[in-house]
Amino acid sequence: MKNSILLLCVVVVLTHTAMAQSPWTREKGKAYVQLGFTGLFYDEIQLEGEKTVLPVDISDVTVQVYSEYGITNNLEAQLIVPFKSVGYETKIGTTSESLSGLGNVSLGLKYKLYDKKWKISSGLMYTANSITKDADIGLTTGFNASTFLPYIVAGSSSGKWYYFANLGYGYMDNDYSDFFRASFEVGYEVIKNGHLMFILDTRNIVSKESAFDNDVNQWPSYLDRQTYNAIGIKGNYEFKKDKFGANFAVIGATGIDNAALAPTLNLGLYTKL
User: What is the pTM of this model?
Assistant: First the structure.
């Protein structure tokens, strides 16, 4: 089975979930910290346009710290630190392997450009190739590449509604393919301090590079040339307004290629400082 997983990686030689960037920034000296949990469990992937059933059951679990800090009233810094546990178990037999370690750590800056009824911000997110990988058992904890993602985001609010859209372009090294990223989120306050949100997040390849064919350090959750149109429902409730709260989301996708065919389950606990 180890050889089967490695063969898959050679042949293809493959969330988040980072939080969607909104146009609002933290005030100077203010912070937001969230501890998130994401689970992805599957045995099927879409591989170069073909549905592929794997001979193993795969688990990909992430515990992630997401933080924002207001450097000034218009400039915000971000840090995302994911710790991942990935593994597989054969459907026939008792063979299993697992690997734990850091995923792709991200650092970012976001600057508020316009602050009227509509808010407009621009930012840059750098995601490092800080993963743990073990080619002998065919496991990695993230993309085997670094990414630079400049973006612009605009949004507003009206009554109990808020909404924003984000456009970005991801430059990846290590011969991974660049991608275009767009996201949209709209939320409504269904109860006091409680919101229900609709999420749309798309990723589409702009240029096909060679990592898909040549890089053996890939894992079905993090293949090169990954494409999807993610759709999700998210709930958020603040137990104490502007102090601490929790959120839960279920996210699926259509238009998938070179990625897992399964939804993600997401839970977050946060505090505002």
Answer: 0.89
